Amino acid sequence: MSEAPESPATSRRTLLCGAAAVLAAGGGALAVSGCSSSSSDSSGGAKSPVDVGPAAGVPVGGGTVYRDKKIVVTQPTAGEYKAFSAKCTHAGCIVDQVKNQQIQCPCHASRFSITDGAVQDGPAPTPLPAYTVVVEGGNLKVTPS
User: Fold this and answer.
1) Cβ distance 131 to 85 under 8 Å?
2) In whole numbers, what is the pLDDT of the chain averaged over residues?
3) What ranges make up the beta strands (E) of 5-126?
4) What percent of the chain is predicted at pLDDT more than 70?
5) How far is CA 111 from CA 64, 84, 91, 125, 127, in A?
């Protein structure tokens, strides 16, 4: 009968030690995973260019929102392309249009400059993040920063 009480205690101890080891290992893996994916996303590490489409699709003095890619490309003057994140810096909504030489957010009426992404109106606290854009073979290639 002495084995019956010992067996649950051993089992409990084994379970607790095993759980602690799993948590420690999982936490370490999670920390490593968080460092590798989060730091590359937030640090502006090397990213691949995104082909958003033909340069001809961006009007002079205006722009085009590539909603699915969360990118907006403008052409302030002929042949000069600018690219920005399409995610509004106020509440994270995706901007929906470029009108009257402004990038416009539908959620709270923030407006941004097509030239440098600067806030021109509304509650947005900071400019839209700028991206690198080049024209290759007639298509726009945007590299998020």
Assistant:
1) yes
2) 80
3) 50-54, 62-66, 71-77, 80-85, 97-99, 102-104, 111-113, 119-121
4) 68
5) 15, 13, 13, 11, 10
d(CA 65, CA 59): 11
d(CA 114, CA 105): 13
Residue 142: which of 92, 85, 98 has the closest Cα?
85
Determine the 3-state secondary structure of 60 from DSSP: coil
Q: What is the pLDDT of residues 1-49, one digit of tens each?
A: 444 444 444 444 444 444 444 434 444 433 333 333 333 344 445 689 9
| Identity at 85, one-letter amino acid code | S
